[in-house]
Specification:
Layout: H1 5-21, E1 26-28, E2 32-34, E3 38-40, E4 43-51, E5 55-61, H2 63-74, H3 80-104, E6 109-111, E7 115-118, E8 121-123, E9 129-136, E10 140-148
Antiparallel strand pairs: 1-9, 2-9, 3-8, 4-5, 4-6, 4-7, 5-10, 9-10
Helix pairs in contact: 1-3
Length: 149
């Protein structure tokens, strides 16, 4: 898989952004290419990119993973609408931080407001995407999907 400089910048900045936003030990596993529809199972946050780089980011995880992260960041358990709101805000913080980091690397990027997706769904409409698995200590696993146009 050959990555262009802008895709490499997005990948590296995404990792840096996630580690900057999440105040816990984050392990990032090897990224892989995703070419088929993406199936989401529990909670996902979708954020669009416009500007020099166009595409979308999805942060996908189990409800328990979002709950564990919310509890560790806010010191209280989150459920229902509060958990969904937290998931959207987490996506917003990561994408906002990503936009700032990419601006420092010379890319102009704007983000769309987060869309929270709950339940089972499939995402179509992309040729290729990068799948970035992350594991957060004592919280759980998440998948970050980067669909770059």
């Amino acid at each position: 898989m050959i990555l262009t400089k802008s895709v490499t910048d997005i990948l590296n900045s995404s990792v840096e952004s996630i580690k900057g936003v999440i105040p816990l030990s984050v392990s990032v596993l090897k990224p892989s290419l995703l070419t088929e529809p993406f199936s989401q199972h529990k909670i996902g946050v979708l954020i669009g990119f416009t500007g020099d780089v166009r595409g979308r980011m999805i942060i996908d995880g189990e409800e328990e993973s979002f709950q564990g992260l919310g509890a560790s960041m806010f010191g209280m358990p989150l459920e229902g609408e509060m958990l969904e709101s937290f998931a959207g805000e987490l996506g917003n913080m990561i994408a906002g931080n990503l936009a700032t980091l990419l601006a420092q690397a010379g890319h102009s990027l704007d983000i769309t407001p987060p869309t929270v997706i709950v339940g089972q769904s499939k995402m179509y409409g992309f040729d290729k995407a990068l799948k970035l698995p992350i594991s957060i200590e004592n919280v759980g696993d998440f998948l970050v999907i980067l669909m770059i146009e």
